[in-house]
Every structure is written in C-alpha cells, then in structure tokens.
Write a structure and sequence with these properties.
The protein is mainly β and 116 residues long. The chain is built from no helices and 11 strands.
C-alpha cells in the first residue's frame, strides 16, 4: 500500500504562484509514475503533469510554460510549481501514483482557488 498526502494549496491571486507537495509513504519503491491531476466543479478529473522514474515529464497543454512538476526522491515527495496562475486553474488538485502492476493510488485532494 502507498499513502499520498498533498499540501500547499490555498487561495492565490491571478498571476501569482503556489507550490503543491505530495508526500508518499509505504511501498514507495513500487512506484514508477507520479503525477498531479485536477478536477473543477462539474468537470472530469484531468491530468496536469506527470513524472516518471526516468525523470521524464509531461505537462498538459493548458499549463505548459506555467506549471512544472519535479520530485525529491530522497524525501519520496513530488511537487507542482504553479506560476502565473489563472482563475481557470481553480480546482481540487490530486496527486496520484502508479506502481508496477498497474495499481493506482490517490491523495485526498487539496483545493486551489485563484482569485481574479
């Protein structure tokens, strides 16, 4: 089992910055992909960014050039640096992880609100 805990959410003004953290515990050695997802009210959960064990990353088109995913393997933690945020970035943000074998794990989610 893997447990994920998000932190760093809150309210920020448009154009500002915020950094989300996701701390993993448990069978972290079994993880090969970690990421951030978000869900706005009335919408489906969408991927924001992902990072693999290899260090390769991907970012959704809507956040490219503004958000950046990174990780600290010594702390079993990954981050989402959010810059130049927009009101449309307002959502519940989840961290997720996938282990070899396909099992997926999710955090409980953390609210990010961007005020105009």
């Amino acid at each position: 089992q893997v447990q994920l805990v998000e932190s760093g959410g809150g309210t920020v003004q448009a154009g500002g910055s915020l950094r989300l953290s996701c701390a993993a515990s448990g069978r972290t050695f079994s993880l090969y992909a970690m990421g951030w997802f978000r869900q706005a009210p009335g919408k489906e959960r969408d991927i924001v960014a992902r990072i693999w064990l290899s260090g390769q990353t991907m970012h959704a088109d809507s956040v490219k050039g503004r958000f950046s995913i990174s990780r600290d393997t010594t702390k079993n933690t990954w981050y989402l640096q959010m810059n130049m945020v927009k009101p449309e970035d307002t959502a519940l943000y989840y961290c997720g992880a996938t282990e070899y074998g396909g099992m997926e794990y999710w955090g409980k989610g953390i609210q990010v609100t961007v005020s105009p």
